[in-house]
Specification:
143 residues; mainly alpha
């Protein structure tokens, strides 16, 4: 993605060349990186977290916070995201959607990229289930 961005800049400013599909591909790649890496980032505990109190909590209390946060926020959000984005992606496939810009990305690239949205929700949901299992295991452990 970085190399492609470099190529786009060189082509634009050194050779006065540019293609909309090339620029759009960088935008969609950027979106794909964020959407497909969200669950991994959550699994590695590298997400943005307001942890003023959390970082100093004992392990069992952290597990309780993780359990509550996953049940109250993460799982409902992922289910909502999957439900709302599924139709969005399905329509894109059904109508063989292409870029609204002349010379932009063509079918099947746009529907494929829109399919990353429910996929992100599914991957986050699976990670949420793993977090629930880990939190329950920690809470049930004899200390």
């Amino acid at each position: 993605m970085v190399l492609l961005t470099f190529v786009i800049v060189v082509l634009r400013y050194a050779f006065d060349l540019g293609w909309i599909w090339l620029q759009e591909s960088v935008i969609w790649m950027h979106a794909a990186v964020f959407m497909l890496a969200a669950a991994y980032t959550l699994a590695e505990d590298e997400q943005v977290r307001v942890d003023i109190f959390y970082r100093d909590l004992p392990l069992r209390k952290k597990a309780f916070v993780d359990l509550a946060g996953t049940l109250l926020f993460l799982i409902p959000f992922t289910l909502f995201l999957i439900a709302k984005s599924w139709g969005f992606a399905a329509v894109s496939w059904r109508i063989h959607e292409t870029s609204p810009d002349a010379g932009g990305l063509v079918f099947p690239m746009v529907p494929l990229m829109k399919s990353f949205i429910p996929l992100m929700g599914l991957l986050l949901l699976l990670q949420g289930i793993a977090m629930l299992i880990r939190a329950v295991t920690t809470l049930r452990a004899k200390v």
